[in-house]
Amino acid sequence: MKASMKITSLLLSVSALTGLSACAPEATDMYHSPRITEYQAPQQPELPKDTILNIKPEKKPTFENPKPKWITIDGGGRQFDFNPNIDILFVVDDSDSMKSAQENLSNNINSFVAGLQKNRMINYNIGVISVWDSTDRYYKANSGKSDSYQIGELRRIKDEKNQYLKARFVTRFKNNEKILASTLKIGVTPYEQGGPETEEVFSPLSAALKKGGRGAVNEGFFREDAALVVVVVTDADDASASISAEQMAQELFDFKGGRKDRVSVYGVLVSQADADEKKDWGLRVHPRYHPECFDTVKGQPKNNGKCRNGFGPTNLENFIVLANPSSGSTQEIRQKHIKSLTKKSFGSDLSKIGSDITMKALEKEIYLDQRPLFNDKGVMIEVRYGTPEALAQGKGQLIPQKRVGGWHYDPENNSVRLAGSVVYEYVEGARFSLRMAVPSVVLPK
Question: What pTM, to 2 d.p., does this model score?
Fold first, then answer.
């Protein structure tokens, strides 16, 4: 018994020593690399097979494309009213050389009016001012006269018998062609009687804009919501000393609140190629006005050939180009906005100006607050024009969808653009109504 106990004790001691000898090197070697074991993520407990996750899907609106919703937009905003106003200001040269040109203007004014009267819905103010001469001679000769006008003052209108009326401008006219013709025929003032020698256009135009306020001589002519059209009629060039073409164009833009699209300028002018007798003295090739074109030979001026074709109204032509930036290229602006004072086509040219003014006045853009739907025929929009009563019954004039003579949709602006060439069936107090298809939205309950 004792012998077996001793053997067991001996075996335990040997085993203990063997364990110590195996651990000793790792315990005592401080440079030995630690043992690295691979990380194992803890296993997720398995869910019981009978467990059901109660996760509800998010509710989203759905669109019923087969059944679009039609909505009518016909009230509230000024953009649906359509009472275009235009203030047309003629700047007419009354110098001695303009006698035949004024006769031409007066005789053909009916053509201009015909171009305007294609659409009765436009409300016009038409007035006339004359050119100016800033010299002391001109001022003294014209001050104190009962029939004289100060710079930029609208001239009083005249009836068929050439009698002056109290009003200073023609309003929306009904067979007022003869009154307008008489008013535009302001006559000429010879130089000896105080007529202008160097014609200024910009200075009286600028002054006219400043005399339109309450109590001023031009009160009521310039309307805040109206487009402004200037028509210059002269055989000379502008001679304003303190106003450039760029400054005059900018002043017109500023006058209309920076809206360049609300300004149009036309010129009925002579050209460089016109014969001397058709031009004002300042545009003729003569030593008095253009000494650079002549050399002195034996004490007498001799044409040196540098200015063989004469001069044109460069200042006014530049002004017209600058004042119509939205009318295309320089060549396109000159073609549309500058007409000849001397050609036989004077009457038809005036008619074109009247028609062009009307087209611009009738252009309109209606902005939409929703995107319309499309089908295989195009955008689903309907535009009508008529009285509120007629529109409420789904009646009124249906405007066709086409770029010329109708409307088209502008996806970039999300708007409907009405062309100026639409021929409206004019009705007093009429406006627009617009129906369009939009998606039907089913909201979650």
Answer: 0.76
